[in-house]
Amino acid sequence: MTTKRRILTGDRPTGKLHLGHYVGSLQYRLAFQEEYECFFIIADLHMLTTKPTKEDVAQIGQNARDIVLDHLAIGIDPQKTSFYLQSAVHEIYEMHLILSGMVTVERLQQLPTIKDMAAAAGMEQMPYNLLGYPVLQAADILMPRAHLVPVGKDNESHIEISRQIARRFNNAYADVFPLPDAYIVGGTLVGTDGQAKMSKSLGNAILLSDDSASVRKSVMSMYTDPNRIRADIPGTVEGNPVFSYHDTFNPDKAEVEDLKERYREGAVGDVEVKTKLYNALEAFLEPIRERRAFYAEQTGYTDQLIYEGTQRAQEEARQTLIEMKKAMGLTGVWNRIRRANERRQKRLAKA
Ligand code: ATP
Ligand code: MG
Prior knowledge:
Layout: E1 6-11, H1 19-32, E2 37-42, H2 44-50, H3 54-74, E3 81-85, H4 90-99, H5 105-109, H6 112-120, H7 128-131, H8 133-142, E4 148-152, H9 156-172, E5 181-185, H10 212-220, H11 241-249, H12 253-265, H13 270-297, H14 301-328, H15 330-350
Parallel strand pairs: 1-2, 2-3, 4-5
Helix pairs in contact: 3-13, 3-14, 4-8, 4-14, 8-9, 10-13, 11-13
Bound molecules: adenosine-5'-triphosphate and magnesium ion.
Adenosine-5'-triphosphate (ATP) is lined by residues 12, 14, 20-21, 23-25, 152, 188-189, 197-201.
């Protein structure tokens, strides 16, 4: 029997997923699940780096369920993926501490991603856990001894740190970890406002769980060429979010080309362009809604999946940590002390 190679992927449980997530990562997860065994981390400890309040923590449970349901809805097969709650796998905390000796503070401080995250969260000083974000990420990746980690381009430097940590551990003690490879995924979807990338916190997102009425509303109020105040004024297609969405979600390429041509000539109204986009998005979202309804009907199913996936991850993490401590000789130190003490207790009992 050949065992499948493994993927580690996941999200911070900060809310429901949207079309931008689909474009930037979900579509790759769908493709990968056929070939790999997938560990899907619900990274709540990572969330604590920028969202640590009690109110934030109170959201984790519902957000975790929503994320799992979003994944089932797009077609992720629960037989092929273990969804697990990071904070419930205590070996990850232990691994994090051991691995933190394999990277320097200077190396972490040089990462632009960490500075950007601190700035985005409005932090003036760097919390220790935010600086250590890539070390915790290394623990996440090395826990199931993953081979491949699909991430966006901006996260590539973090995977490089995971590789370095794995390499250092293997060289210092014994070959425990495969060196994880980054698989760069990507593509960015602009928001419906045309101003920034789609983000749930910017109010420019179409959620995978939105109903038809909200999708229609979002599409009909989408930003287009602002100079085009009448349908007979030639418009700009490049950088126009309505056309980027058509390119991404409308499989009828002939229809899209025809709309673009007429738009450039000032021979089509916004309503027609947007109605056709709405139809394309609905065709994309309809099967997603059907699967969502199917799974949502089974009350408690997402909790069961997270529970079973977390148990699976706990067992996996236990094995990895045992291997690590054995390789380091830590297990031996403790065992010798434990046995010596047992002998002493026996002697004392006899005397
Ligand atoms: P927030 O508003 O809280 O930042 P968000 O909606 O931007 O949330 P994140 O949690 O920041 O979502 O994104 C997680 C990951 O999803 C990103 O690292 C990226 O890979 C992908 N992603 C998010 N938004 C987009 C987008 N608009 N286009 C492509 N990929 C995206
Ligand atoms: Mg974001």
